[in-house]
Design goal:
Layout (H helix, E strand, L loop, with lengths): L5 H12 L5 H8 L3 H13 L21 E9 L5 H8 L5 E6 L6 E7 L2 H12 L4 E8 L6
Antiparallel strand pairs: 1-3, 1-4, 2-3
């Protein structure tokens, strides 16, 4: 892939602010033709610099997808095993975030789920990983903002 230059960075900044910005609008803002902007975006998509576009809902937005949330607390066998566990769980579509921790807990995963059985299935999967010593599930009962 061709190296990312200042123009590509400007395009990425605009798309990061507004993923719905039109190619024409981006072109006007960076003083490039629509064709040039489209070619650059296509090149960055093919090189996986741009891996997708998404909607980010505000707190007042409707709840979309599974309505329940839980935290999975993981203790592993030691060393720096968090990245191994992350590789296993990051493909799950309902994982919201994952944090490696310092202290008695090694990893905490926030996920959404529709049915409790789905949560238990994820726990079983994680428990089957050699590096995982213990998985505790903590369904969220109430959230305050």
């Amino acid at each position: 892939m061709k190296k990312i230059d200042d123009i590509d960075v400007k395009i990425l900044e605009i798309l990061s602010e507004d993923a719905r910005a039109s190619i024409s609008e981006i072109g006007r803002r960076i003083h490039k033709s629509r064709t040039a902007v489209e070619a650059r975006i296509t090149r960055m998509e093919e090189a996986r610099v741009i891996q997708g576009y998404r909607v980010v809902l505000g707190e007042q937005g409707p709840r979309v997808g599974p309505a329940n949330e839980a935290f999975l607390i993981i203790r592993h066998s030691g060393g720096s095993d968090c990245h191994i566990i992350w590789k296993e769980i990051k493909q799950h579509p309902n994982v919201v975030e994952c944090h490696s921790l310092f202290g008695p807990l090694d990893l905490i995963i926030k996920m959404r789920y529709a049915k409790f059985e789905e949560l238990m299935s994820v726990k079983e999967h994680l428990s089957g990983i050699t590096e995982v010593r213990e998985v505790t599930i903590c369904p969220v009962l109430k959230t305050w903002s």
